[in-house]
Every structure is written in C-alpha cells, then in structure tokens.
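Please produce the structure of this protein holding adenosine-5'-triphosphate.
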Amino acid sequence: MISFLFIVNRAFSGTSSTLMSQAGSGPRPLVLCGPSGSGKSTLLKRLFAEFPDKFGFSVSHTTRHPREGEQHGVHYYFVSRSDMERAIANDEFIETAEFTGNMYGTSKQAVRDIQSQGRVCILDIEQKGVEQIKKTDLNPILIFNNPPTIAELERRLLKRNSETAETLQKRLKAAEMEIAYGLTPGNFHKIINNVDIDVAYMEFRDFVVDELKKQQALGVHFN
Ligand SMILES: Nc1ncnc2c1ncn2[C@@H]1O[C@H](COP(=O)(O)OP(=O)(O)OP(=O)(O)O)[C@@H](O)[C@H]1O
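Below is the modeled complex.
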C-alpha cells in the first residue's frame, strides 16, 4: 500500500487563502462521471479495495420509506417530501433525482461529513450533478471516464445483463451527449480513456494518489 506521506519538495502554485481554506475543510471530494457502462463502479471498487480507509461515500437523502434493516443516517437519511423540497429550495443539495415517485439526493452537508472524517468523498454523479457541484464551494476533483466507442459501451451493458431494450437505448443515447460534455476542454481535470481496465485503473489510481499528495503538501489532514 502507498503511503501518502512524502517529503514536500514542490513549488506551491496556489494562493495562501486557497491553502488555508483547503487545509481547513478536509480532503477535496472526488467526482467520477461517465456514461452508464463505462466502468465507473469497476474503477471505484478497485480503488476501495486498494485503499480501504482513504475514501468514503456520502449518505444520500430519500423520501422513500426505509426497508427492513435500513437505518436513518447509515443507509440513507429518510425525510419527508416537504422537508426535502424545503432543503432543495434552500440550496442544500448538489444533485437530486426522482425515481418511481420518490426523491433522492446528495446534500452538501453529507459530503462535508465525509471530509471532516479525513476521507475523500467519492461522488459517482451525472453531468447535471457535475454542473451543480461546480457552483458550490466543495472544490471537487473532476474525472471523466471515457469509453472507447458507443458500440463498446453497448457490448459492456449487454454483457452486464442489466438492461431492457428500452433502458439500453436510453443509456446509449444519453452517452453521446455525456461524452461530448466530458471531452469538452475545461469541464474535467482528468479524462481516463477506459479501454483496457487494468491500464485505465492504473491511470486513475496514479492521478488520484498524486492529487492526494498535493493536498497533503498543502496541509490537508487525511484519515
Ligand atoms: N475497461 C473495460 N473493458 C471491458 N469491460 C469493462 C471495462 N470496464 C468495465 N467493464 C465491464 O462493463 C460493465 C459496466 O461496468 P460498470 O458497471 O463498472 O459501469 P458503470 O459506469 O459503473 O455503469 P452505471 O453508471 O450503469 O453504474 C461491467 O460488466 C464491467 O465488468
């Protein structure tokens, strides 16, 4: 396992106020965005396996009722629709979505909770969420996971056996727009061309480890 401790021997490129605010707020969140089937979960699974205590997922909010065994604040924050709508109006959420009549969302506070534990909060979010988080003060590291082609994306989704004909077409159609956004210069800090999974993982991991070292050099405390 890599240690994030290292000798600081690097020109400091930020301003002193950036340094103070970054060191005080904890590790920067890490956003991984990319079309469905591009391999985000696969990359994250490997990252968690290699660094079990460095990363964390934020707890989402939902208006659906808890299932047996689900705990408030652990699996989800279970809230009423009116409370959730009030919080959204109050600009407390990074992203929200509605599935089968229930609202779901990631609050800024849930991300801060992970940061305050000295962990990097991982956010697997869609384009809309990326646009939203850019407007906050969370200062995320933004990574786009780029599949080689739409045909390969289709092949991966078919092999995963998770889609109906309808959801497959929906995902592939959305992928074209997502890729155009992902490859637009300035939208992400890093693009991973996810062709071979082993090569893609090494590129992803090396980039993330390097980012964490840079933050550590700025005085950010890690778990
Ligand atoms: N580089 C790769 N080459 C071939 N197959 C891959 C690669 N990366 C992932 N896969 C496979 O493609 C399928 C989709 O990957 P995964 O579920 O990680 O995608 P995802 O981006 O997380 O999708 P979703 O957004 O729908 O959750 C999985 O079956 C996975 O094993």
